[in-house]
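Key result, reporting period 2: structure in, sequence out.
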């Protein structure tokens, strides 16, 4: 039997315990003791060095259903009184709706069921941490446990939701030069640039995705006094319905962030029409456009990393996929990348049957032309870091010649998706790496970060800074001092003499296009 009095007392106690993400131990210790007093033994599943989940499993047999709730709340930055308040039939307090009422209800329901069914109750109770921040508690839970069915508590106005809503969190950053306010140029002011980006996103949401709920927050600029700030940032939250085409939305958001006067910006359909009318091209090449179904294409090439094609097999944000693997059926051909020595792309594809991908999902591989490539690094050039883009101080350097690095001490920095791979490339072609700074992909370097990189390189007695072509265009002319920059590029090379076959495939599919 459900005890309403006991349920209400537990609910009140949970609300009165402050438990923001990262500081959930007090509420977990209380719940662990509460369950113990009710003769329920809970397993402690470590999430990090100080935090843990509580998991109660059937004493006999396997769990067929799991009741899962999160015990953390948002941080009460500006709330002085976050505890329990009751007025007539309304209860308020931090976490009352999300999600302490649900946790209390789940605990009471579990106790009632256990008393009724005994140790054979095929139900688990899981109380996790970190949901309001990075979801590390839930991620840790699914590493060790699998349940055929789960009831996940979230505030839904008591409406059963049979699909899972997604959550997309995006940081937007604009960077520029710090100038005196008398020299301000609105086109280069980081706050103005970011506000325009936010307006473009708002227009995109209203025009293209009215079904989405979105929110801008935490707008911030560097403190600069009577100067133009050199950095401004904000965060965008998007709540995605269960049937949302997340890959397409992410790609469209990336486009919407770009100003309308760039060649590949705005919405790609509009950019394509503009390219046709102004430049009359024979062929338009669209990068990262597989999810852009509004654009009719003659050819869809899908590139897959042969070493890690599908990650854990899940869609973003739980995994790395922008859409389900079965979408490969829409592709015209598949190009495996990073097919180095000892890499079996076909075997790796089959191996992914173990990570939430069924054999029928891989039918996209059948009857598709498949090509194999590898990445070949080369020395793009050695440059004067204080000079504008492209002023090579060793103009006679051959692309295949990396000899300037073979006897050198180097300091590496990069802001790409696979920084560790770049580090390995340089380590194999330099005498000694004295240090390495890794930044997120597409990172906009600040002046302070560049100074830090140079200071670290000088203190390590580096002969060269080493970075990627992608990063060099962002920092050219901004490196203080006289330390040169060696820039490493990457070529795609076809394996097994497949380059001529690929060229023939392209020609055959674009004739008359």
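The corresponding designed sequence is given below.
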């Amino acid at each position: 039997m459900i005890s309403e009095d006991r349920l209400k007392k537990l609910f009140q106690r949970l609300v009165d315990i402050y438990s923001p993400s990262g500081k959930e131990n007090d509420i977990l210790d209380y719940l662990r003791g509460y369950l113990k007093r009710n003769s329920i033994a809970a397993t402690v599943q470590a999430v990090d060095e100080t935090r843990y989940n509580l998991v109660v499993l059937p004493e006999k047999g396997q769990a067929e259903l799991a009741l899962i709730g999160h015990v953390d709340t948002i941080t009460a930055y500006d709330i002085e009184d976050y505890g329990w308040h009751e007025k007539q039939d309304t209860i308020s307090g931090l976490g009352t709706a999300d999600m302490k009422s649900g946790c209390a209800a789940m605990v009471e329901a579990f106790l009632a069921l256990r008393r009724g069914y005994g140790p054979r109750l095929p139900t688990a109770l899981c109380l996790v941490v970190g949901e309001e921040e990075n979801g590390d508690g839930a991620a840790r839970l699914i590493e060790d446990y699998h349940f055929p069915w789960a009831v996940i508590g979230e505030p839904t106005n008591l409406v059963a939701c049979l699909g899972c809503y997604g959550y997309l969190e995006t940081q937007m950053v604009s960077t520029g030069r710090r100038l005196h306010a008398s020299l301000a140029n609105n086109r280069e002011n980081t706050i103005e640039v970011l506000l325009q980006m936010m307006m473009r996103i708002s227009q995109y949401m209203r025009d293209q995705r009215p079904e989405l709920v979105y929110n801008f927050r935490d707008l911030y600029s560097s403190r600069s006094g009577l100067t133009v700030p050199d950095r401004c940032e904000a965060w965008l939250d998007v709540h995605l319905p269960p049937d949302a085409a997340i890959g397409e939305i992410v790609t469209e958001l990336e486009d919407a962030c770009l100003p309308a006067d760039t060649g590949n910006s705005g919405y790609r359909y509009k950019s394509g029409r503009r390219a046709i009318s102004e430049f009359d091209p024979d062929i338009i090449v669209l990068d990262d456009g597989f999810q852009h179904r509004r654009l009719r294409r003659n050819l869809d090439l899908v590139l897959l990393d042969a070493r890690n094609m599908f990650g854990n097999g899940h869609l973003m944000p739980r995994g790395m996929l922008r859409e389900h693997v079965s979408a490969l059926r829409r592709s015209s051909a598949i190009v495996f990348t990073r097919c180095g020595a000892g890499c079996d792309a076909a075997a790796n594809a089959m191996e992914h049957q173990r990570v939430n991908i069924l054999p029928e999902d891989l039918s996209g591989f059948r009857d598709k032309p498949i090509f194999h490539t590898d990445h070949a690094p080369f020395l793009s050039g050695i440059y004067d870091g204080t000079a504008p883009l492209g002023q090579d101080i060793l103009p006679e350097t051959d692309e295949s010649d990396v000899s300037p690095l073979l006897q050198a001490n180097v300091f590496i920095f990069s802001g790409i998706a696979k920084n560790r791979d770049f580090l390995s490339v340089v380590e194999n072609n330099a005498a000694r790496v004295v240090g390495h700074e890794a930044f997120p992909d597409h990172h906009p370097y600040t002046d302070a970060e560049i100074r830090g990189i140079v200071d670290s390189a000088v203190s390590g007695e580096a002969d060269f800074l080493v970075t990627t072509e992608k990063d060099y265009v962002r920092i050219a002319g901004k490196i203080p001092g006289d330390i040169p920059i060696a820039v490493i590029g990457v070529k795609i090379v076809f394996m097994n003499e497949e380059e001529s076959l690929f060229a023939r495939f392209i020609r055959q599919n674009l004739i008359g296009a």
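Confidence is low (pLDDT under 50) at residues 262-266, 350-355. The chain has 13 helices and 19 strands. This case is discussed further under Risks and Mitigation.
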